[in-house]
Each structure stands twice: as C-alpha cells, then as structure tokens.
C-alpha cells in the first residue's frame, strides 16, 4: 500500500486508521452518526415508527420528484429538439456514473486527466446518485462483501431491495462493510464534488438542461421536465439495474459462487455494465465486455478518450487469466453434469469373486461375463445386444476380454460405457483377468484423475474394460 503523509490529505477528510489497512469513512457533509446510540434500523418496523425508517431525502429525489415530473409532462408538449437533447444529456450523465464513478473512481481501472475528471464528476452529479466519494465507498463495499450483510445493496435481500430499497430505506452505517478510500480523499475533484454536492446537483441536473433548452430554442419548461426531472428518473432506474438486474438475470461464465451475472439486456440498459459476472471477477479491468461484438459503450468511450489523450493507463487483465477462470467454471459445470450420470459402481466398491465362484454362479443361471477382470451381469441386455443373442450367450461364464476388445468385434467407447453400468464384481487374481490392473498400473495418471467432488473421471476410450491387445512383431518372435 502506498503510504501517504498526513499532510497530503485535507485535514477534514483524514480518518482513523484501522488495523485492516482501511480508514474509517467520515462524512464530510451532514450530521455524523453517534455510533454508540442504537440506529433506527436496529429497531423493528412498526405502525408507529415506519416513517423513521424511510430515507425521505432519497425518497423525494428518486420517487416523488419523478412522479411530479411525469404528471407535469401532461401539460408540457415534448419538442423534438428537447427530446434529442435529453437523450444526449442522458448519455452524458450515464457515462458520469459508469465511466466516472464506477470504472474510474470506484475501481481505478484507468487514469483520467483533470479536464476528463471534471467532465465525469459533472456528469455524475447530473445523474443524481450521490457524490462520487459516497458512491465509490459503497461500491467498494459491494465488491468486497458481495451478497453478505455488509453489502450495501445485497441482492440476497430481494431484487427490489437491491434496486431501490437500499436507497429508500435508511441503512445502518455500522453495518456497511469498511473499505479503503484514501485514494479518493486525495483526489481534489472527488473531494470538491463531495463537499459541494447539492450545489453540483442543482446546477448540473436541473439548471444546465433548463438553460440549454431555454436559450437554445425557447423551451425552458421542456428542458426542466424532460432534460431534467424525467431524464434523471430514467438514468437512475437504468443504473440501479447494475445492482439488481445484473445480480439476478443471466449467465455465470466465470464464477457461480456469488450472484453477479452476464446478460446483454442488462448491458443495453446500463451502457455496457451488464457483463457483471466478468466484472466481479476482474473488477479493475476497464472493460465489462471483453468481446468486440458485445455492447459496452462505456469501454468504447474510455478507449476514445485514450486516443484523445484524456485517459491513460487503461488496465486489462491478461487474456490467459481470463481464459483460466472461464475454463475452471466450465470444468465445474462439467463435473456437476458428470455427477448426474450413472458411471457404474466404482471398481473398488465391488465385491471380489473368485474365478471358480464366477464360473459356478454362471452355471447356476446368472448371466455373468468377465471382461478385463470385471464381472458384468448382462441378463437384462441379452435381448438388446446389437451383435445378436448367440454371441453374448456364448460368453456367459467366460473371460470375454479378448472377444470384447477386438477378438470378434472391437466394441465402441459407448459399449464400454454401457458395460460399466452392468458391473457386479471383480475377479480375484489369475490369468487374463489381471489385465486391467496392469493397464491401470501402466497408466497411473488415468487411474487417479478425479473431478472437483472427488469422483473418478473416466475419459473416452479409457474404461477399465478397454484393453489393447499386445502388438506382435517379427522381432518379438
Ligand atoms: Zn455487483
Ligand atoms: Zn464494480
């Protein structure tokens, strides 16, 4: 960890160092919590106190104001120019969150020059989702404590909670996981935006769109309602989907132990933040989508800014590491599938039968056939044998290793697999029946390959009943 001398950090953002290397988060605005008093969230919600559980400031901004905007829109006609501007401003604000708050400040997946930082901080303020400092602190906790109680927007508490509930309801500041934000406290743009957050919001989210539409084409009211309030509503709902939809809908190509998922719909809604399973595995990668054809406009913008000299040090995880993660998850899925299939009783769990008993039981009516030292009960299969009843009947009570492995017909891998499900015993010692043991001894690796649950993996062509006949050459004679 880079050590920073206390003098580098503005005095008001210096916080107590804690033994895990993080620093306590200290609010720069608003009241400081008295950590000794019980927080309202520690009390159950009742008819008498429910309103104390609601975060009214957030509720006003993300529910009441948009509702008022929707109603007002009835009286204010939507002009084409205003709508086009609102869409452009939507992208400006959205990128402030995705490229600014998320990939630049929360994850430091690239570095930005001062003009770009100011641009992103302004865009982030226009989205009205809290300051970059506050947002990044929570987001780092979300990554560090994903799906646990310390995750500020854990999807385990329900899809609605992860989407909006965590903002509408008060959160216990003692509960949210601690994260290190010393780097953000050293970033003057972040600290300034945090301290002047309310002013930034009023200017960037409402005044600027109102003035642009008003001075540009005389639509002050439309600029305020469409470019301001309704645009804020849409950008909030879209970016909230990163916390809800991205933890609920889609595939898990890199790790399925936690909730993050990849889905193109989430990507379309969130300016490319939808490849969230990848993102949680490789959070400091400036990309969310790693394939060129996947939708990640945030990545494209960062790349363009790099070409313009505004962004640098774009971080990428090595392809080798990404593919390793993907392969391991594929392997895990294969193992899970393997576990659902019938591979026959493992050889070590089969009873050991002497050759004489094997012959005797076969004479007594059991349809037993020995192949490579393993006894198989083919009784139920005789009728279905593709090679006919006579051939299989002729092998009952005998060692059919050579016949099965090419003497009469070199059986397919599928036939060896099917045969393994008919195992009933192993022959003790003697003659040709030892062959599989020898074969296994010669292929020690094959005999010991197990999957992640400890079950043996039987690869194609490597069933123990498969025996290659010895190659006879002129020299050997
Ligand atoms: Zn997440
Ligand atoms: Zn993230």
From TrEMBL:
Gene3D superfamilies: Cytochrome b5-like heme/steroid binding domain
Stored CDD domains: Delta9-FADS-like (cd03505)
SMART domains membership: Cyt-b5 (SM01117)
Any one GO MF annotation of this record: stearoyl-CoA 9-desaturase activity
InterPro entries in UniProt: Acyl-CoA_deSatase_haem/ster-bd (IPR009160), Acyl-CoA_DS (IPR015876), Cyt_B5-like_heme/steroid-bd (IPR001199), Cyt_B5-like_heme/steroid_sf (IPR036400), Cyt_B5_heme-BS (IPR018506), FA_desaturase_dom (IPR005804)
Alphabetized UniProt keyword annotations: Electron transport, Fatty acid biosynthesis, Fatty acid metabolism, Heme, Iron, Lipid biosynthesis, Lipid metabolism, Membrane, Metal-binding, Oxidoreductase, Transmembrane, Transmembrane helix, Transport
Pfam family, one: FA_desaturase
Main localisation: membrane
Subcellular location: Membrane
Textual note on the cofactor: Expected to bind 2 Fe(2+) ions per subunit.
Protein role: Stearoyl-CoA desaturase that utilizes O(2) and electrons from reduced cytochrome b5 to introduce the first double bond into saturated fatty acyl-CoA substrates.
Annotated protein name in UniProt: Acyl-CoA desaturase
Organism from which the protein derives: Neurospora crassa (strain ATCC 24698 / 74-OR23-1A / CBS 708.71 / DSM 1257 / FGSC 987)
